[in-house]
């Protein structure tokens, strides 16, 4: 149980907590959906350890949600497949933007830097498009922290309860 110095988390750490729980919950669901398809025993063992690690991470992080600065009484569950796929695409596009930004800082060749910059800009546009889709359909309530955190809890509980 959370026993921090203050009774609530800071806003900025709450948002980082949200990002980590949402990203890991989607990842956990993908691993669990893929597990039965893995026939190689060594890779299957790696998947199993990864699943267990993500479950532990999510459970450890979930204890901090009660200390978030905003809570909501609403309890809407995202059960549609399109919510999962949209969230997965959003996480992928965000990770892609970060990866391109890092790669550009390591690039010495001007031609490669130009290509990477162009691809980064396309990745930013993809991220915006996915975010706007999710926002429009109520899948990413970015201006309602309480609902955002409620959605995280529901997603994490769904991921943790999935069989593999």
TrEMBL record:
Belongs to the CotF family. Keywords: Capsid protein, Sporulation, Virion. This is Spore coat protein F. It is found in: Spore coat. It comes from Mesobacillus persicus. GO terms for biological process: sporulation resulting in formation of a cellular spore. Its main location: other. Pfam families: Coat_F (PF07875). InterPro entries: Ferritin-like, Spore_coat_CotF-like.
